[in-house]
Amino acid sequence: MYISGVKSGVKVSRLGLAVPANVLALGTVSLVTDVSSEMVTAVLPFYLVLSLGLSPLAFGLVDGLYTGVTAVLRLAGARLADRLQRRKLVAGLGYALSAACRLALPAAGGSAALIGAVVAADRAGKGLRTAPRDALISLSADPGRLGQAFGVHRAMDTTGALLGPLAAFAVLGASGAYDAVFVVSFAVALLGLLVFVLYVRDRREAAPPRASIRPARELLGDARFRRLCLTACALGLVTVSDAFVYLLLQRNAGLATEHLPLLPLGTAAAYVLLAVPLGRLADRLGRGAVFVLGHLALVAVYGALAASGPFWLVLPLLGLFYAATDGVLMAAAGPLLPAGSRTSGLALLQTGQALARMFSSLLYGAAWAAFGPVPGLIAMGAGVLACLSLWREVR
């Protein structure tokens, strides 16, 4: 074991974690990009609800767009990446589109409709880049260490999510203007794009892709992958979005407006600390067990919110949920997919999950408007427990 150094494109840390150089490069890009995106994410819910006065149902619609519109270009971009074997090119286009949208936010002014359109375009950029990026991670790491590789990437990604709200808090405190947050976010996004262009290397699969990309029905012909997709989609339908979680925390605790961008920090800190250990644990003990652990943490989040629990309990539990499910799901799916269609398969899984979470936001927003926030949380928690009967499909 090496103490430090580089061999065959693999960096080895003092802790003995062999991490491919391309994974580290992609993690760095995600870190910088997430600083940019989370600056916007940290202030947008409160800007829309507290400043523009959107109702829970209207906010659920915008939040659903934020989550679900990633599906618009996800499958098309993934198929193009597989067909051309140019995953870096397609992912780079997605990063560039999202960066441009940061600058478009100030131009939207106070119009909720225009903000929704910019948000939709931003999320389309995320949809375009996510599957090619995850395919590059999958192709850059040893199959037996995919959980660790995705854990390292997600930890770096979430470090950006940790820093983004801090940056938004600092900019908002210094300027008092949301537009300043959006402009600084654009500059940071450009830096992430530059790192991507200079340091990320493309990866081609040993087997060339077929002349025509496998359609969704053929990818879903594999029973294990099909059940994995169904599990992810079912759980996505009963996952309350982070934005609603933070709004409920603000409602329960009566936090001052200037402190609201700091709420995601607890989630991100727990994610950063747990992503790599849980990824390694998933490689050793089974990805299904870790996946279930994450969703049990999500049920605990719902229970704590319903009981008006403190933010110091809710936020770490939410971070545990993401650390135990996000990268673990991609690590479970990668080995099930055929050569030449890995990006398309991951995009299909992510698209189903994104669409499910879009409808989840609409459903929960409607439930909150009709019955209040607590009954919806109880229904969502019961749904998560019911869906966990499928957990054995996550290997």
UniProtKB/TrEMBL annotation:
> What's the short name of a Pfam family annotated to this entry?
MFS_1
Q: Which InterPro entries did the record assign?
A: MFS (IPR011701), MFS_dom (IPR020846), MFS_trans_sf (IPR036259)
Which keywords annotate this record?
Answer: Membrane, Transmembrane, Transmembrane helix
Q: Where in the cell is it found?
A: Cell membrane
Give the way it sits in the membrane. Answer: Multi-pass membrane protein
Q: Where are the transmembrane segments?
A: 12-32, 44-77, 155-174, 180-200, 228-249, 261-278, 285-305, 377-394
Domain of life, per UniProt, equals: Bacteria
Q: Provide the primary localization.
A: membrane
UniProt entry tagged with the keyword Transmembrane helix: yes
Give the protein name, as stated in the record.
MFS transporter
Q: Which organism is it from?
A: Nonomuraea indica
